Amino acid sequence: MNDKYSRLQIAIHWLVFLLVVVAYAAMELRGFFPRSDRPMINMVHVSCGMSILVLMVARLLVRLKRPAPPIIPKPKPMMTGMAHLGHLCIYLLFIALPLIGLVMMYNRGNPWMAFGLVMPHAAEGNFDLVDTLKQYHILLANIGYWLIGLHALAALAHHYWWKDNTLLRMMPRKR
C-alpha cells in the first residue's frame, strides 16, 4: 500500500483549501472595496462555493473508492475515531455550506452570477427563507473557521508532537 494519498486526492485537498481561503477572504474583505465592486466580490464568493461543493463531492467519491494510506506509527483507536469525526464534520460543512448558499441565492428572486454567468432564480423572492438560510450560512461559515483551525492544528500536532506521517500523506510528491 502507498504511504500517500493519490495525486488526485492531494490536488483536490489543496485546491479546496485555496478556494476556501478565497471564498472567506471575499466576504471578510468586501468592506475594503467600493460598493460598486460588491457584485464582482459576491460572484467570486459564490463561484468558489460552487467549486468547493463539486470538489468535495468528487473527493468524497474518490475517498470511498480509495482507502486512506496508513498512519505510521499507528495511532490509538481514540485518535483515529477523533480524526474520522473531524473529517466527517469537514465534509458535511463544505457540502452543506455551499448548498445552503445556492438555495439562498436562488430564492432571492433576482439575477445573480457565478463564473460570469447569470444563474437561474425564483420568479418571486422568499425573503423569510433567505433570512433564515443566511443565518445558517453565517453560523456554519463561522464554525468553519474553528474546524479548519482544528484540522490544521491536528495535522501539525501529528507531525511535530506525535511524529507520525499524517501530514506527509497529504503533501505533494517531490519530483
Write a concise keyword list for the protein shown above:
175 residues; mainly alpha; Fumarate Reductase Cytochrome B subunit; 4 helices; cell membrane; metal ion binding
Précis, in short:
This protein has 175 residues and is mostly helical. It contains 4 helices and 2 strands, in the order αααββα.
Which helices and strands appear, and what pairs or packs with what?
Layout: H1 7-29, H2 38-65, H3 77-106, E1 112-114, E2 117-119, H4 127-160
Antiparallel strand pairs: 1-2
Total strands: 2
* Unreliable parts: none
- N→C terminal distance: 20 Å
Q: Characterize the largest beta sheet: strand count, sense, and whether it forms a barrel.
A: 2 strands, antiparallel
One letter per element, helices H and strands E, the order comes to HHHEEH
Rg over C-alpha atoms, rounded to the nearest angstrom:
18 Å
Arithmetic mean of pLDDT = 96
Please estimate the helix content.
55-70%
What would your notes on this structure say?
The chain has 175 residues and is mainly alpha-helical. It has one domain: Up-down Bundle (Fumarate Reductase Cytochrome B subunit), CATH 1.20.950. Helix content is 66%, strand content 3%. It is built from four helices and two strands. It has helices at 7-29, 38-65, 77-106, 127-160, and strands spanning 112-114, 117-119. Strands 1-2 form a two-stranded antiparallel sheet. Helix 1 runs antiparallel to helix 2 (38-65), helix 2 (38-65) packs across helix 3 and helix 3 runs antiparallel to helix 4. The longest helix has 34 residues, at 127-160. The model has no long low-confidence stretch (mean pLDDT 96).
